[in-house]
Design brief:
Layout lengths: L1 H14 L1 H13 L4 H30 L8 H12 L13 H10 L2 H11 L4 H25 L3 H28 L2
């Protein structure tokens, strides 16, 4: 169970590093209620998790003995992140919970790509544990972003090293999935 919690936390952190910037910007803008940002991000993460669970269940039912190969997905995402240089995301949104849900889900392709292979190796208890970890970390992520929104130097530091942190974590997650760690 502890390994499930650790893998879930690492998966959340690695797939939501981009969300910290989006959330920080939303909190910085000041045109949105903080409760809408918290609720929207939480619900968006839950939607991504459920989509990933459905994908994992469907894949494992068809290809159970090849599930380990799904570890190639986060490795691919990590390699892609190394070469991806698109830093400009100019997003104009409203102030509703639905806006934050949509932003979270629409920017969650990497979440689904990482969560499906992880969930494919989980039973129901482990999946519920992962959902709980994701829910708690979603709220923590919003809290951190809210605090970062007033610290420009720290925000610049994270942005500077994002290109190193994200690919390494994705590749390590893929290796963990392939070898069943």
């Amino acid at each position: 169970m502890i390994s499930t919690a650790i893998i879930s936390a690492v998966a959340f952190l690695s797939t939501n590093i981009d969300d910290i910037f989006l959330l920080t910007l939303l909190f910085s803008a000041g045109n949105m209620r903080k409760s809408n940002i918290y609720a929207g991000h939480f619900l968006g993460i839950m939607i991504l998790s459920i989509i990933s669970c459905l994908g994992a269940y469907g894949l494992t039912a068809l290809f159970e003995k090849y599930v380990f190969m799904l570890g190639l997905v986060p490795i691919f995402l990590g390699i892609k992140a190394i070469f991806d240089r698109d830093d400009d995301e100019n997003i104009s949104i409203g102030g509703s919970i639905l806006s934050v849900i949509l932003l979270t889900v629409l920017s969650g392709g990497d979440n689904i790509g990482v969560y499906i292979p992880i969930f494919a190796r989980m039973n129901v208890v482990h999946f519920i544990t992962a959902l709980a970890i994701f829910g708690i970390m979603s709220v923590m992520w919003c809290f951190i972003a809210q605090r970062l929104s007033v610290l420009p130097a720290l925000r610049r530091f994270i942005e500077k090293y994002k290109r190193v942190i994200v690919p390494v974590i994705f590749i390590l997650l893929g290796i963990f999935i392939i070898f069943g760690i």
